[in-house]
Write a structure and sequence with these properties.
Helix content of chain B: 25-40%
Number of helices of chain A: 15
Order of helices and strands of chain B: HHHEE
Oligomer: heterodimer
Helix content of chain A: 25-40%
Radius of gyration of chain B: 24 Å
Shape of chain A: globular
Number of helices of chain B: 3
Strand order of the largest sheet of chain B: 1-2
Structural class of chain A: alpha/beta
Distance between the termini of chain B: 41 Å
Strand order of the largest sheet of chain A: 1-3-2-4-6-5-10-11-9-7-8
Largest interface: A-B, 77 and 50 residues
Shape of chain B: flat
Number of strands of chain A: 11
Distance between the termini of chain A: 18 Å
Largest sheet of chain B: 2 strands, antiparallel
Chain lengths: ~475, ~100
């Protein structure tokens, strides 16, 4: 863990060596750096290597968003997160692969190829922050940064067997993060202990004049308070998302995951947590995914209108400005995200705005209000982060979806509730199913980040997950 | 969903796809529209105010109104493929006629 690192050793060099060693097999990185700008600081992250998702702006370092349209783009400014880590003395090892422009959940769609799961290379790792998840799971770096719009850190954390945390919306500046869906986008952190998650979050959180949606500073560090007493140890799960009957599901993998989940809850009850079953309108829960799809595609369509290849990015060929832009966007975007943009455009057509876009906003409010009702009594919502293990790549599709079952609509998408309401939310490894990791997620009321991390710290110790060892 | 409509949306977004890609998207739309119907099935939606942001954010501060040049012209032009005389070069946009 970060506090125990031997800083007399060249941690940067050994991280770069590991990154290169694993690159051919797992493809976690778009860019691996050969040099670092070491500075001396008193910060705990001084000389600690880390990886950054390739949708954070890093001056003088290629930043592609894993898209062909930006394959030559070298930013001239730093994302606030990168600047703060640099000032702390942390050392950037490389920029990690994501689903193109963060629009996907498999990490199979980046322009430099798919990220493979460290536990099993025939499986995906989830997305869109798959490269950052892999970099931590493979012990290349002790922590990494991702972004989370629907579950893009908390789902890969489940499939890669690491911890993934996104704090309250606005807690960490989004300045310099390529916008996907601005009202849902969060900066998030991967690590292998809650303590490390807290240390990194402490370093990068805070109000930023360059992002007017950032929250006022709290004036304390989460990492200092982790061992303090937990105020409320009551948690709940929603039976329409997960319940004991699902242990006997015909879907064997779901059954095993459910069994592991309820065994984990029993362990937590033995150490003083109260965990109760609650209910939420199933129709509302089934609307989570279409609501997410509607809002995110509509916002993405607008946010990515700046990618024309004229001022930056790969320029197209043509006789007029229009032809140049059309050529750049036709060649620069993959089929997958073109489809998402078209869905967004459809939603934003005047005749569909009321029925789709505004109604999705209304459903978003209902889901958030229903969740907030639970937070009046409970410190958090505890649920499986996924309905099973990482899917096989041959079974994976990033088509917007071929799925209408309850498992895919509800269980595989409930983490988006955390983005709808801006709630802090953390995924921790819960154990193995068929030798592959699955995660447990806890989500709490906005501004209760510190309480959530205190709970996660206890849960982590009780589960005592054995992380992948180095080769 | 008619393919012609999809082509219209793509044109508005300033890109094109091949015929096969449009066909895939057309079949995908069958599922998407069924999923979107789930939104419409929620009762009394008309009484709810659409949510556009995770929570009410009361920003009680404003930046000082100070002039700041965030990047230089030279920096800006580093990512421009075609440039001339310190400016971005594009084909002529005004017709002589």
């Amino acid at each position: 863990m970060i506090n125990n690192l031997d800083k007399s050793k060249d941690l940067f060099k050994s991280s770069v060596e590991k990154a290169k060693k694993y690159q051919n097999t797992y493809n976690a990185f778009v860019t691996i750096l050969d040099e670092s700008n070491e500075i001396e600081t008193n910060h705990v992250l001084n000389k600690v290597p880390y990886a950054l998702k390739d949708n954070f702006s890093t001056s003088n370092i290629l930043t592609t968003g894993s898209s062909n349209i930006l394959k030559n783009y070298v930013p001239v400014y730093d994302a606030t997160v990168y600047r703060k880590l640099k000032e702390a003395g942390a050392l950037l090892v490389g920029k990690t692969v994501l689903d193109e422009l963060a629009m996907g959940g498999t990490s199979l769609t980046g322009h430099t190829g798919p990220v493979l799961n460290p536990y099993d290379t025939s499986r995906q790792i989830g997305g869109s922050s798959g490269g950052s998840a892999a970099a931590v799971a493979l012990n290349i770096v002790p922590f990494s940064i991702g972004s989370d719009t629907g579950d893009s850190v908390r789902k890969p954390a489940s499939y890669a067997g690491v911890i993934g945390f996104k704090p309250t919306y606005g807690r960490i500046s989004r300045y310099g993060l390529f916008a996907f869906a601005s009202s849902l986008d969060h900066v998030a952190v991967f690590a292998k202990s809650t303590k490390d998650i807290a240390i990194v979050t402490d370093t990068i959180k805070g109000r930023d004049n360059l992002d007017m949606t950032t929250l006022p500073d709290e004036g304390y560090n989460y990492s200092d308070l982790l061992e303090e007493q937990i105020e409320n140890k009551k948690l709940c799960y929603i039976k329409e998302i997960i319940n004991k009957d699902m242990i006997n599901s015909e879907d064997i993998e779901l059954g095993k995951t459910t069994k592991l989940f309820f065994e984990t809850l029993e362990k937590l009850e033995k150490i003083g947590f109260t965990i109760e079953e609650k209910s939420m309108d199933k129709e509302l829960l089934k609307a989570i995914y279409p609501t997410y799809l509607t809002i995110s595609c509509a916002e993405a369509t607008s946010n990515n209108a700046n990618l024309t290849g004229i001022q930056f990015g790969v320029r197209g060929i043509g006789e007029s400005i229009e032809e140049i832009m059309i050529d750049a966007r036709t060649k620069g975007f993959s089929e997958l995200i073109k489809r998402r943009f078209i869905i967004g455009s459809y939603i934003l057509q005047k005749e569909n705005q009321e029925k789709l876009f505004l109604n999705a906003g209304r459903v978003r409010r209902l889901i958030v209000e229903n969740t907030k009702e639970l937070f009046k009594d409970y410190a958090g919502l505890i649920l499986p982060a996924s309905g099973g293990i990482a899917p096989l790549i041959k079974d994976s599709s990033d088509q917007v979806t071929d799925r209408l079952s309850d498992r895919s609509l509800i269980l595989e998408n409930h983490l988006a509730i955390g983005n709808f309401g801006g709630f802090p939310s953390i995924t921790l490894p819960m154990g193995l199913v068929d030798n592959l990791p699955v995660g447990i997620n806890i989500t709490s009321e906005v501004l209760t980040d510190c309480e959530l991390l205190k709970i996660a710290n206890v849960v982590e110790k009780e589960i005592n997950f054995k992380y992948l060892k180095e080769d | 969903m008619q393919i012609e409509k999809l082509k219209k949306y793509a044109k508005l977004l300033m890109f094109d796809m091949n015929e096969n890609e449009y066909k895939i998207l057309q079949s995908e739309f069958d599922v998407i529209l069924k999923q979107m119907d789930l939104i419409g099935q929620i009762k009394d939606l008309d009484k709810v105010k659409p949510m556009t942001f995770p929570f009410e954010l009361n920003s009680d501060y404003l930046r000082e109104d100070e002039y700041e040049n965030t990047i230089t012209t030279e920096q800006f032009l580093t990512n421009v493929t075609e440039k001339s005389q310190n400016q971005v070069k594009v084909p002529k946009v005004v017709d002589n006629d």
